[in-house]
From TrEMBL:
Enzyme's top EC category: isomerase
Pfam families, per the entry: SIS
Native organism: Paenibacillus favisporus
Name of this chain's protein: 6-phospho-3-hexuloisomerase
Stated family: Belongs to the SIS family. PHI subfamily.
Record keywords: Isomerase
Region span, Disordered: 122-147
Domain (SIS) ranges: 29-175
CDD domains on file: SIS_PHI
EC number: 5.3.1.27
Record-level Gene Ontology MF annotations: 6-phospho-3-hexuloisomerase activity
Length: 188
């Protein structure tokens, strides 16, 4: 296959993956963001990068959003929301964060392949996303579930979920891109 053929196969995988996202869970995530005092996002590796993208768009919407681990991130408190992206739902640093957030009185949402994982069970809302964990590249039938390496399909589905939630929030708040652009970084 050439590069364009790979790109076409990736988009086919994404189309199949996206049709498996629960509308109810995605809409509930949007509602929880609107009801939160502050929104904190976390994830390890590439899932963390997708979370950073969510935090940026929330900021563009005027919603107080922070990336866990940044030096300017305040403490989480009651009424806040922690949004975690974790394919496995078992990343120990994220499990520790979720437990701490719950102890403090914050709500936790985890977007994961495994809603029955430790993070899924700790969450107020586990959002099940299709994808393949790093160590399982074939579907149950033995056919290839994805041509992509490691957790790429999950991470791509995660950013699409996050962007879809942003569009829902834009609609609910009556905002458009031009209003959001007014909050875009201007020291670049």
């Amino acid at each position: 296959m050439n590069t364009a053929d790979y790109a076409l196969e990736i988009t086919k995988e994404l189309q199949r993956s996206i049709t498996r996202i629960s509308n109810g869970e995605a809409d509930q995530l949007a509602e929880m963001i609107l009801e939160a005092g502050n929104v904190f996002v976390a994830g390890a590796g590439r899932s963390g990068l997708m979370g950073r993208a969510l935090a940026m768009r929330l900021m563009h919407l005027g919603i107080p959003a922070y990336v866990v681990g940044e030096t300017v991130t305040p403490g989480i408190g009651p009424g806040d929301l922690l949004v975690i992206g974790s394919g496995s739902g078992e990343t120990q640093s994220l499990v520790t964060m979720a437990r701490k957030a719950k102890e403090i009185g914050a709500a936790v949402v985890t977007a994961t392949i495994h809603p029955d994982s430790t993070l899924g069970r700790l969450s107020d809302l586990p959002v099940r996303l299709p994808g393949t964990p790093k160590d399982q590249q074939t579907a149950g039938s033995g056919e290839k579930a994805t041509i992509q390496p490691m957790g790429s399909l999950f991470e791509q589905t995660l950013i699409i979920l996050y962007d879809a939630v942003i569009l829902r929030l834009m609609e609910q708040r009556g905002q458009d891109s031009s209003q959001m652009f007014g909050r875009h970084a201007n020291l670049e």
